[in-house]
Amino acid sequence: MNQIDQVLTSLRRVIRAIDLHSRQLVKTASVTGPQLRLLQLIRSQQGGTVKELADAMSLSQATVTSIMDRLESRSLIARVRSLTDKRKIHPQLTDSGNALLDTAPTPLQDSFVRKFDQLHSWEQHMIIASLQRVAEMMDAEAIDASPFLDIGSLDRVEVDEATIAQQGSQN
User: Fold this and answer.
1) Digit-coded pLDDT (tens) for 94-114
2) What CA–CA distance (Å, rounded) separates 39 from 31?
C-alpha cells in the first residue's frame, strides 16, 4: 500500500470510529456527541452563559444556540434569563437532562484522552502538529470544529464571506 493510501485508510478509520460511536450514542442516549458535551458543560458550569459555553466547546454562539434549541425541545434544558442582566441567558439542566447525563455512556474522546495523556509530551506534540497539517492540507481551517468528536452534515459548517471570497480568488 502506498503512503497516500495509508493516510486515506487511517483517516477513514478515524471517521468511521467517530461515526460508529455517534450512532451508538444516539441509539443508547438519544443525543449526539455535541449535545451530550453541552449537557455536561451546563452541569459543570452552572450559571454559565451561552457565550461561555460556546467558548468552552470552541463553537460559535449560533451553533450552541441551535444545539440548545434541540435540547430544550426535548425538555433536557431550560433557559433562564439572568436576574442582573436581562440580555444574558443561563441554560439549566432539567430533571430529565440530569437523568440522561447520569445514564449516558462515556464519550469516545474519554478513551482517546486517557490514552493520549499516557503518551510522552513529544509524541503529543507530534500528533497535534501532524493533525493540524492534515487539516490545513484539506483546506479545513475555516470549518467550525468542536474539540469533541461528532459526525454530521457539511451544512453545519459556518464560513464567513471573507473566507469564501479569499478561497474563490485562490482558484
Assistant:
1) 999 999 999 988 776 778 889
2) 10
